[in-house]
Amino acid sequence: MEKRSELYRGKAKTVFTTDDPELLILQFRNDTSAFDGERIDQLDRKGMVNNKFNHFIMGKLEEAGIATQLEALLADDEALVKKLEMIPVECVVRNRAAGSIVRRLGVEEGLVLNPPTFEFFLKNDALHDPMVNDFHIISFGWATQAQINEMKVLTFKVNNVLSALFDAAGLILVDYKLEFGVDANGNIVLGDEFTPDGCRLWDKATNQKMDKDRFRQGLGGVVEAYEEVASRLGVQLA
Ligand SMILES: Nc1ncnc2c1ncn2[C@@H]1O[C@H](COP(=O)(O)OP(=O)(O)OP(=O)(O)O)[C@@H](O)[C@H]1O
Ligand SMILES: [Mg+2]
User: Fold this and answer.
1) End of a domain among 62, 82, 102?
2) Is residue 20 assigned to a domain?
3) Which of 13, 22, 188, when mutated, tests ligand 1's pocket best, judged by the most ligand atoms within 8 Å of its CB?
4) CA-to-CA distance for 157 and 68, rounded, in angstroms?
């Protein structure tokens, strides 16, 4: 596999083309951003930890029958993935209230949402990723009704698999966001990443935050918390 040119540099990852037009390389950088890129810091080891964490989680999702971009781990901070035509929305499931929903709806952080709730957000930093609904997605041509239905089913399936996985590791999966894309055959496939940068994980015993909220809230020990989660799950980092 030959790495070719840089296709896109996002806030946390750089995407490279390869000699295979259907495959890309995702490079996980140490850059950590919050508040739509207004605050950016370099956190030692984060690229490596997130790359391996993501590889582990996507492997578990594949085992559960969910199609993902996963191809291979190439290096500490690089993964080979299927090239997808990304759908520009984030799919969010919330098992408990935290983050933006607390401010938007005036509910208490930690409130258990039964059943878990689902939200779509448009990926647009300049607009601060506004919440959108199914009608917006169809009217603006970001995805079809069938694709929306499938993204919802898959996002909730991920919830069943990962809530159990994290629970067994003494962690509460509070919420998370997924990004899907369309592969060369027109199938909806899970892309991007599943890491503590894009989910909330609380320690079951202490309610301690073990995710990117440590960075957003200036709590420190960000990568240490990610490593603790990885270690509890059995993710091989070294
Ligand atoms: N399998 C894939 N095929 C194609 N593009 C992908 C794939 N997985 C992720 N991407 C895209 O690669 C980029 C990853 O970079 P990063 O997550 O750092 O971006 P970002 O700062 O979140 O920016 P953006 O808001 O543009 O996504 C994202 O735009 C993401 O949608
Ligand atoms: Mg991103």
Assistant:
1) 82
2) yes
3) 13
4) 13
